[in-house]
Specification:
Layout (H helix, E strand, L loop, with lengths): L1 H19 L3 E6 L8 H12 L2 E9 L11 E6 L5 H18 L4 E5 L4 H11 L2 E6 L13 H14 L5 E4 L2 H11 L4 E2 L22 E6 L8 H7 L6 E6 L5 H10 L6 E5 L3 H10 L2 E4 L6 H4 L4 H8 L4 E3 L3 H10 L2 E3 L5 H13 L1 H14 L5 H4 L4 H4 L1
Parallel strand pairs: 1-2, 1-4, 2-3, 4-5, 5-6, 6-7, 8-9, 8-11, 9-10, 11-12, 12-13
Length: 385
């Protein structure tokens, strides 16, 4: 009898020992299809490095491409894929998924995933972390849409003061939220890995001319239209656009209207693992986010750092966060306005002034050693360790 009791006690201790080493489960919520969200991928890999079991929850779209990740991806197909009905459906589905599965931590990416994550975290009393990729309620897509913008502002007003653990992508956005809600939001910038695993291959642009490159989402206010018009003032220079988004058809029509079909090339969606092959091959990049709302004014675009890591000289708008990086590290040429002629002049400077160009490239080589994810990700320790 005593031996049986000892055996049971030993088994119980083994179970407790095993449970003590069980990985913490974290649900990472996004409203995109995960495949092109490189920030989420980097954060998920950081979580794996720190012994989390990671489940990323996104959605399935017609254009969704297969992806291979080290963590589990759950993508759901929705009845609605736009406007209020999509956000409502997404949060309802996410709410019940979170409610019916065990998680130790929830990571909500952006305001459109936060309602479901917030309420389940309260119901189940589990930790919630919020990653704000932008100043959501002040985005350019919401300008002039008073009712819709007020809805998102109201959601921020209710949720953000109640979220204990939160960080965002730039100092300006952090300052905005901290002043408004006193919520001590931290900053983790979206910077590439210095030693990222990429697919190296030979690529060609559909032109023999020098190449201006835009890479990123095709949404309003990215400076693409004035760059197209700048081609009228440039010779032997073409414009290559990599990416997809809601204004792609509008941009194609604009190119036709400007009579520049032969000089503007849309390459569509290219996997991030292969994108650097095109970045390195281009001659000049553009980071011309326009001041259409505070979200863009305070933005720190991913492509800014992608160009630095690709050693691609670029021109940029004079917005505070972008200007701070450009001036501190001397890695680009700032334009004073978004007039096509001004943009063309800046592009000519970067292309034709060999001394200026070589200096920019040398400064990029130096600065990417400090502007890298390997250093930036350490800031996440406060939230997850």
């Amino acid at each position: 009898m005593r031996e049986v009791n000892c055996l049971k006690l030993l088994q119980k201790e083994q179970v407790l020992h095993k449970n003590s080493y069980m990985k913490r489960r974290i649900l990472v919520a996004v409203t995109n299809d995960v495949s092109t969200d490189i920030r989420v991928d980097k954060v998920c890999n950081y979580l794996l490095e720190n012994e989390y079991e990671v489940i990323t929850y996104g959605r399935l779209l017609k254009m969704t491409i297969p992806v291979e990740r080290k963590y589990l991806i759950k993508r759901t197909k929705h009845f609605f894929n736009d406007n209020f009905l999509f956000y409502a459906e997404f949060n309802i589905r996410l709410f019940f998924y979170l409610l019916s599965n065990r998680f130790d931590v929830i990571l909500a990416n952006d305001l459109d995933t936060l309602p479901a994550c917030f309420f389940v975290s309260k119901i189940k009393r589990i930790k919630l972390v919020y990653d704000s990729h932008e100043l959501f309620s002040e985005g350019p897509e919401l300008q002039g849409r008073k009712f819709v913008q007020n809805f998102w502002r109201s959601l921020e007003n209710f949720l953000l003061p109640r979220v204990k653990y939160a960080y965002t992508v730039s100092d300006s956005i952090s300052d905005f939220y901290n002043e408004k809600y006193q919520n001590e939001m931290g900053v983790v910038r979206n910077i590439p890995e210095l030693n990222r695993k990429m697919t190296n291959e030979q690529v060609e642009f559909p032109t023999q001319s020098k190449v201006i490159l835009y890479q990123g989402v095709l949404n309003p206010g990215r400076g693409i239209k004035p760059t197209v018009q700048a081609l009228h003032y440039l010779k032997d220079v073409d414009f290559v656009i990599i990416g997809y988004g809601k204004v792609e058809d509008e941009l194609r029509d604009f190119v036709i209207k400007e009579g520049l079909v032969d000089r503007v090339h849309f390459l569509g969606r290219i996997p991030y693992e292969k994108l650097h092959n095109y970045t390195k091959k281009a001659d000049v990049g553009i980071v011309l986010e326009e001041p259409l709302g505070k979200s863009f004014v305070y933005s720190l675009p991913n492509k800014l750092f992608d160009y630095i890591h690709g050693e691609l000289p670029f021109i940029s708008g004079n917005l505070p966060e972008i200007t701070k990086i450009v001036c501190e590290h001397k890695v680009g040429e700032i334009v004073k306005d978004y007039k096509p002629k001004t943009i063309a002049s800046a592009i000519e400077t970067v292309l034709n002034n060999s001394e200026k160009r070589n200096t920019l490239i040398e400064n990029q080589k130096k600065s990417k050693e400090s502007l890298c994810w390997e250093k930036e990700k350490r800031k996440l320790d406060v939230y997850f360790l």
